[in-house]
């Protein structure tokens, strides 16, 4: 059961990463929906970099989780 607990942990981490990424996308979307001043353009660029970093975190968490599933069920 320990290996299932580890899969549960990885799945929860993956889900949390996706939820954080969704919030970042919505924040960027909100900034893309207004008339921009110079300050808002800078905020939009920052939002894009945050979204991109979170997306990379999602991809890493997904890879880790999927690799663990392959190992458990297919031994590779």
Overview of the structural elements:
- The protein has 76 residues and is an all-alpha fold.
- It has one domain (2-74).
- It has two helices and no strands.
- It has helices spanning 2-32, 38-74.
- The longest helix has 37 residues, at 38-74.
Question: What is the gist of this entry?
Answer:
With 76 residues, this protein is mainly α. The protein is built from two helices and no strands. Helix 1 packs antiparallel against helix 2.
Q: If you average the pLDDT, what whole number results?
A: 91
Distance between the termini: 19 Å
Counting DSSP E segments of at least 2 residues, the number of strands comes to: 0
- Order of H and E elements: HH
Q: Name the structural class.
A: mainly alpha
The value of Rg in angstroms is 17 Å
Helical percentage = over 70%
> What's the tally of helices?
2
Low-confidence stretches: none
Strand content: under 5%
- What coarse outline follows from CA principal-axis ratios? rod-shaped
For the sheet with most strands, the description reads:
none
Number of structural units classed as domains: 1
Instruction: Please state the oligomeric state of the protein chains shown.
Output: single chain
């Amino acid at each position: 059961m320990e290996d299932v607990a580890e899969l549960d942990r990885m799945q929860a981490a993956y889900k949390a990463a996706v939820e954080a990424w969704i919030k970042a996308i919505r924040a960027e979307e909100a900034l893309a929906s207004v008339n921009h001043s110079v300050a808002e353009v800078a905020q939009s660029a920052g939002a894009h970099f945050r979204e991109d970093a979170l997306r990379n975190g999602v991809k890493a968490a997904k890879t880790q989780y999927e690799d663990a599933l392959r190992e458990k069920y297919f031994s590779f």
